Amino acid sequence: MPSSALSRREGRFSSVLTGSTGALLLLLLAACGAGQRALDRGDAAYADGDFRGALGHYLEAERQGEEQDALATRLRNARIATAVEEGRTLYLQGKFEEALEIFRGALALRPEDEAVKRWVLKVRRDLGDVLVKQAREKSIDGDFTTAEALLLEADRLWPGDAETIEALSEVRTLAAWDRTKAQRYYEQGNRDLNANEIRVARWHFERTREFDDAHEGAARRLSQLDQPILDLRMAVIRDLIEAQRWHAASAALRLLLERHPGYREGEALLVEMTHEAEATDLLEKARRARSRGEFDETKRLLERGRLLTQRQAPDFDHEAQKLMSYELLARYLEGRKFEFEGRYDQAVTRFFEIVERVQGDPALLATTELQKIPREKRYLLDSAFDPQEFMRKPEIWFTYARAQRALMDLRQRLSLAPGIYDEARRLEDAGELAEARALYRDLLIDLPSYRDTFERVRQIEVQLGIAPSTVPALPDQGRVPKDISEEGVVEDAGSGER
Questions:
Q1: 257 within 8 A of 268, measured Cβ to Cβ
Q2: Which of 38, 170, 452, 487 supports an S-S bond with 60, CB 3.0-4.6 Å?
Q3: CATH number of the domain at 33-158, please?
Q4: What is the rounded distance in angstroms from the CA atom of residue 339 to the CA atom of residue 351?
Q5: Where in the chain is the domain with CATH 1.25.40?
Q6: Is 226 helix (H, G, I), strand (E, B) or coil?
């Protein structure tokens, strides 16, 4: 190997060795001078006003064991300066109690520190003013006990303050006046109790507690009156139930349970009254639906309500009976409409449905027996029929009798009609127009829309040169509605029925 290359390699090795030795020396110097630098950094931070940072550096120097005598003074000064800074921040935020605790801690570190003493006095003064203000607010609310406690604390913080002494005297005067007033209410409550005026007595005892919440006599009297008051309230609720005012009873029970929580009888009765109130609402909805002719909806509402109630069962049964009467009348009117339009098969079906429905129920059939119908009403069966009149207050016996008669009469007329029609056609073909016209007119009276009877009468009358006939109304038809659903089945607004 050339000597020049060898010398260059030895130079690089010596330089590496020199760098490692320098680094080691630097680490040793850093370890030896770390405490001094922490102390210096603390002094620099303290001089810059960073007291919290200075305290941190001093604590670090303390851990490293640097100059304990000099460090103790610096630590105390840094702690006091940090406390004063923190207390000042709390004071500016209005947190006087917390600030006072901080300043007291700082004063304990150096009792002769005048600056900290001034801060303590300032905070005590301001905190006393705040307590006086709070005491006045409590006094306005009538809480004299709390107001007095706040004022006593304010007087302890700043003894001899004229405003505090004046407010304390005022609060004590008002408290004494309230105790006197409470005693008057208490005495009046006792007089009411002797006169058996339990509710008024309870009110006076409650007022006593409002003015003097520590009044033992009023508290004892109120506990004694709990059961009598409960009995009185239950008596009122039972009167509401007797009057079938279910909603009012429910509201009264809720109020009672708020004042007497855990009263089991009241809880059970509230459930029942809630169901009764709901059933009442359903019954009213059912009546409105029936008045609109919505019979299916009415039936659904009645079934729901009937499951909820026992006390209103007669009302629901009565409404169900009334619903049936309206349903039967609607079928009867529809049957008469079909008959007038010549849809005889459908008319027979409607009349038959009414008769079958009544005869299939022994209870209904018993109510439609003629001998049980009031005598003054029997004439209606033979009188002219006005649908609008009976749509207001239909009765099952009347609808049943009319439907039975209409069914028999329509079947009889339908059985005779083919023979009459054929005979009239024969006479017409034979040229006996007058006799044919008479038969056709008889057929029109019984069955106004039977086949082409009306057209043939008109043709014959043209040939005879006489005035054309009109379609005669059925004997008891009156005005038949075009559509039952359009007319609706309405109650008489002045009937006053529920």
A1: no
A2: 38
A3: 1.25.40
A4: 10
A5: 33-158, 179-279
A6: helix
CB under 8 Å to 6, separation ≥6 — which residues? none
Q: What is the DSSP string of 365-382?
A: HHHT-GGGS-HHHHGGGG
**Residue 468 DSSP SS3:** coil
In terms of Cα–Cα distance, which of 112, 111, 150 is closest to 130?
Answer: 150
pTM (two decimals) = 0.47
CB hemisphere CA count around 412 (13 angstroms): 7
* Fold classification of 179-279 (topology level): 1.25.40
Interior CA angle at 278 toward 275 and 281, to 5°? 155
Closest CA to 153 of 130, 184, 178, 122: 130
Q: Report whether 80 contacts 109 (CB < 8 A).
A: yes
CA 91-117-52 angle, to 5 degrees, is 60
How many H-runs (helices) and E-runs (strands) does the chain carry? 21, 0
Q: What percent of the residues of the chain are helix, what percent strand, and what percent coil, each to the nearest 5?
A: 80, 0, 20
Q: Compute the distance between CA of residue 306 and CA of residue 297 in angstroms, rounded to an integer.
A: 14
Q: Are 469 and 328 in contact (CB under 8 A)?
A: no
**Token reading at 52:** 């919290």
Q: Which residue has the tokens 């075009």?
A: 482
Distance CA 223, CA 442 (A): 91
470 token code pair: 């009109």
Count of Cβ atoms closer than 10 Å to residue 29 Cβ: 10
What's the start-to-end Cα distance of the chain, in Å?
A: 130
How many angstroms separate the most distant Cα atoms in the chain?
A: 166
Q: Are 380 and 405 in contact (CB under 8 A)?
A: no
Of 262, 210, 293, residue with least CA distance to 491: 293
Token look-up 């506990």 returns 223
List of residues 6+ apart from 241 with CB closer than 8 A: 249, 273
Q: How many residues does the chain have?
A: 498
Q: What is the pLDDT along the chain (498 residues), one digit of tens a residue?
A: 333 333 433 343 333 333 433 333 333 334 444 434 677 787 777 777 787 787 787 787 777 766 666 677 787 888 888 888 888 888 888 888 888 888 888 888 888 888 888 888 888 888 888 888 888 888 887 777 788 888 888 888 888 888 888 888 887 777 777 778 778 878 888 888 788 787 788 778 877 877 777 788 888 887 877 788 788 888 899 999 999 899 999 999 999 888 888 888 989 999 999 999 999 999 999 999 988 888 889 999 999 998 988 888 899 988 888 888 888 888 888 888 888 788 888 888 888 888 888 887 777 777 776 556 665 565 556 555 555 555 566 777 778 887 888 888 788 878 887 888 888 888 888 888 888 888 878 777 767 777 787 788 888 888 887 766 665 544 444 333 333 333 333 333 333 333
